[in-house]
Amino acid sequence: MTVTRAPDPAPHDDPPRYDRTVDPAEKIIASQAWLDAAAEPLQRAIVGLYERGGKVGQRVEDFLHGKYIGTPLHPILVTIPIGAWSVAAVLDLMELRGRKDVRAGADLAVAIGLVGGMAAIATGWTDWARSGDSPIKRRVGFVHGSLNESAFLLYAGSYLLRGGRARATARGLGFLAYTISGMSAHLGGTLVYKEGLGVSHTAGQRPPDEFVPVLADADLPENVPTRVKAGEVPVLLVRQGEHIHALAETCSHLGGPLSEGRIEGDAIRCPWHGSLFRLSDGYVLESPSAHAQPCFLTRVQGGQIEVRPGRSPD
Ligand code: FES
Fold first, then answer.
1. Ligand 1 binding residues, C-beta < 6 A
2. Is the pLDDT reported for residue 19 higher than 80?
3. CA–CA separation, 73 vs 124, rounded Å?
4. Over 80: is that where the pLDDT of 218 sits?
5. CATH number for the domain formed by residue range(s) 212-309
6. Confidence of residue 105 (pLDDT cuts 50, 70, 90)
7. CA of 83 to the centre of ligand 1 (A)
8. What is the pLDDT of residues 135-189, one digit of tens each?
9. What is the pLDDT of residue 20?
10. Which of 48 and 12 is assigned the larger pLDDT?
11. Which residue of 14, 254, 268 sits with most ligand 1 atoms within 8 Å of its CB, as the best mutation to test the pocket?
């Protein structure tokens, strides 16, 4: 077996996959390299903002990625503007057909959507900024976010005009913004369901249910991240004193190789985007991953380290 020492963290592209550009909208946007001139500086600016914030910046970023609820926050928050603006669109249509009594409800729905939209924008740009070097994610995410910003600004304009004489214009801006946000939602779905942004990259792994031998005990050095396999599933082993920690080796964020990461005390930092996982239970100490790393129980039998999925009651 090969023992690898963790190199310094370095930027890394996503692993190659097939079937990446079947969706027509995604295909067109992904081929627009000129978008990088705006997208890359924006990604760097967002990351730099959090990094300059030190510990506070890290906590804010953790919160916006969804670390504290164990799942990305962005898809939860987007339901607020989508739902509120859908109600507003229906009420605006009713008003068009003569129902003046629905005006207040439509205006309130637009306002609720604006508040939820701000939160959705903050979480969305934060997730996107840590989406790696993949040009597809960068360009599609940039267009997705830009369309959402446009819809937000149009709804803000719509809201401001609603109290005056330009109510018809306000409704028109609202319908335009709703159309744009629908187009943007398609791109958001592409990013999640096709490109796997926000999805745990360990979700499809099926290690054996029972203990299986993975390595001779004598071959595991102290405090060296070591990659082994349980069935077809890559597993990270780290010996620390009398403990042998075992986590899924594939980073839940975007699939980075944790065995090439860096040990920091009782945790390991992913070499791709810096998520920090506690070795004993896979808990996310620092985002961008929102998903805890699956962990394994370990034991030594007949000189062999054995693992099976599970979490120590300790
Ligand atoms: S792959 Fe992004 S932090 Fe690990």
1. 251, 253-256, 270, 272-275, 288-289
2. no
3. 9
4. yes
5. 2.102.10.10
6. very high
7. 32
8. 999 999 999 999 999 999 999 999 999 988 899 999 999 999 999 999 999 999 9
9. 55
10. 48
11. 254
Q: Model pTM?
A: 0.87
At 312, phi and psi to the nearest 5? -65, 140
Q: How many CB atoms lie within 10 A of CB 160?
A: 12
The Å distance, Cα 161 to ligand 1 centre, comes to 44
Q: Which residue has the higher pLDDT, 266 or 24?
A: 266
- Nearest CA owner, ligand 1 atom 2: 273
Of 33, 47, 178, which is closest to residue 125 (Cα–Cα)?
47
Q: pLDDT of 245-267, one tens digit each? A: 999 999 999 999 999 999 999 99
Q: Kindly give the distance from the C-alpha atom of residue 257 to the centroid of ligand 1, in angstroms, as a whole number.
A: 8
Residue 289 Cα to ligand 1 middle (Å)? 7
